[in-house]
Write a structure and sequence with these properties.
This protein is of the alpha+beta class. It contains eight helices and 17 strands. Helix 2 packs antiparallel against helix 3.
Length: 367
């Protein structure tokens, strides 16, 4: 039995609005006119047809199927009045009544789109955008870092140079749409007949067809392969920040515009420093005597060097001191954050007899 909630990616407690949003998103993703998966689109439409109807949803929740009132049969996914949804040209069955045999195949998503202004043919040649993740150490956010990212993507076919035709062969006008890239379709449904303009199925909206498709890319003008892309991670980048590299996504079909590459950066945690914005926080342990008398102590920096920090006399544990300009560079390129040093006074766990005696004397004197 099909799990319609799972198909739409919603829970059983989903509201009507949740179901509608999920359907619209998936219908857009799998719609055949946009090059999507026909079988998945039918499955999504079927799930929406049931879950968007209060009575059908109630039947489905109770019995795991919907009972068609026109036939009396229990059929999960059966539409009202014996109608079936599908994708393709509408056809009419021989029938003598308005019942199971009335039989127009229709796509409920198409009818919604026809009612609300039709659908756009869209850009069928452009390549899709790609998003990848890159994990860098905190030190890389200091000076930036060059990363080489390996991804499997569509690249321009080397044989036909993206044209989609065999070298020296011609590209001709599409016979079906006369070079327009669009064809007029008449759809019939329970709501009547609708005329709409859709992508030409022969040329996929381009208006041109290779006389002899390229032997390598089969007329696509692109092939899928692994590509190594050099990317410069700029200084100051932070976790969950997205960098855009224009034109490095999938290559478009037949010299169509390439998509973009989006890099989501994650900065790894550091053993010594904690980052908050562009400030770095570090904890520095000191002795009780250093805190009481004052001293100069070495403090590590993100560059790997050490600087001297003056500890004032009578410093308490937890005191916070700021070292200006020793944090992470601002992403704008102007200036740097600060380093925030937290003082931690160490309490010795084991004492020698001499140390114990000295502390006893200090204790007697109220220290």
């Amino acid at each position: 039995m099909k799990d319609y909630y799972k198909i739409l990616g919603v829970t059983k407690s989903a509201t009507e609005d949740d179901i509608k949003k999920a359907y619209r998103k998936l219908a857009h993703k799998y719609h055949p006119d946009k090059g999507g998966d026909v079988a998945r689109f039918r499955e999504v439409s079927e799930a929406y047809q049931v879950l968007s109807n209060v009575d059908k949803r109630s039947q489905y929740d109770k019995f795991g199927r919907v009972f068609d009132s026109s036939t009396g049969a229990g059929q999960a996914g059966q539409g009202f009045g014996g109608f079936q949804w599908g994708w393709g040209a509408p056809h009419e069955h021989e029938t003598d009544g308005f019942g199971e045999g009335f039989g127009f195949d229709f796509d409920i998503g198409e009818i919604f789109e026809d009612f609300f202004g039709g659908r756009s043919t869209g850009d069928t040649k452009s390549g899709r955008d790609i998003e990848v993740e890159v994990h860098i150490p905190l030190e890389a956010a200091l000076k930036g870092k060059e990363e080489i990212i390996s991804i499997v993507k569509f690249a321009v076919c080397a044989r036909c140079q993206g044209v989609g035709a065999e070298p020296a062969s011609k590209v001709k006008e599409c016979f079906s749409c006369r070079g327009q890239g669009q064809v007029q379709q008449i759809k019939r449904s329970v709501f009547g007949s609708f005329t709409r303009v859709g992508l030409c199925p022969e040329c996929k909206g381009e208006g041109l067809i290779p006389e002899k498709p390229c032997n390598v890319c089969k007329g696509e003008g692109r092939i899928q392969r692994e590509d190594a892309i050099k990317v410069q991670i700029p200084p100051g980048v932070d976790s969950n920040q997205i960098l855009k590299v224009a034109g490095k996504g999938d290559a478009g079909r037949r010299k169509g515009r390439a998509g973009d590459l989006y890099i989501r950066v994650f900065v790894k945690p550091h053993q010594t420093f904690k980052r908050k914005g562009d400030d770095l926080y570090v904890s520095v342990p000191i002795l009780f005597s250093q805190a009481a008398l004052g001293d100069e102590v070495e403090v590590p920096t993100i560059e790997g060097t050490r600087i001297l920090l003056k500890i004032p006399q009578g410093t308490e544990s937890g005191k916070v001191m700021k070292v200006a300009g020793k944090g992470i560079p601002h992403f704008s390129g102007l200036g740097r954050g600060n380093m925030i040093v937290e003082i931690e006074i160490i309490t010795p766990k084991k004492l020698t007899r001499e140390q114990q005696a000295l502390l006893e004397k200090l204790k007697e004197r109220g220290i």
